Amino acid sequence: MEDIIKRIDYWIKLLPKEFNSLSETEISTRPLPNKWAKKEIVGHLCDSAINNLDRFVKIQYEEQPYRIQSYDQDQWVIVQNYQERPLDEILNLFQTLNKQIINIIMNIPTEKLTYICDLGNTHKTLQWLIQDYLDHMEHHINNQILIR
């Protein structure tokens, strides 16, 4: 878990610096009408953090296997109107949510990392879910935000 915590903390610190080097056009332009702008991608990462915060907490105390509820990612981005919100608000939300995720991860007893969650078609551990959260974050940052 230590490496995951370090990676999340790295992105908490780096992402605002990266966005400071981008123009408003680079931040707000959608590459295609049905694709998210970079600021919307950060909003999506906030939505992911919100949903995973809930999961990381509940898996620790609810009946096993804990059933993961999916969410409509596109609707969350639309309803929360990230495209029209100031970037600094979205980045502050990203940082705050991920600081809380780090806090949760740091306080998970080791034995609970093996607790099982039901993803619908497969069962995975809480540890796997936490790693998947980081992998998902880094996928979006490396492949959609940092690309110029």
Summarize the structure.
The protein has 148 residues and is mainly alpha-helical. Helix content is 63%, strand content 5%.
Give descriptors for this structure.
Four Helix Bundle (Hemerythrin (Met), subunit A), globular, mainly alpha, 148 residues
Describe the overall structure.
The chain has 148 residues and is mainly α. It has a single domain (2-145), classed as Up-down Bundle (Four Helix Bundle (Hemerythrin (Met), subunit A)). The protein is 63% helix and 5% strand. The chain has 6 helices and 3 strands. It has helices spanning 2-20, 24-28, 38-58, 73-80, 87-106, 126-145; strands at 66-67, 116-118, 123-125. A hairpin with a 4-residue loop joins strand 2 (116-118) and strand 3 (123-125). The protein is globular. It starts with a helix and ends with a helix.
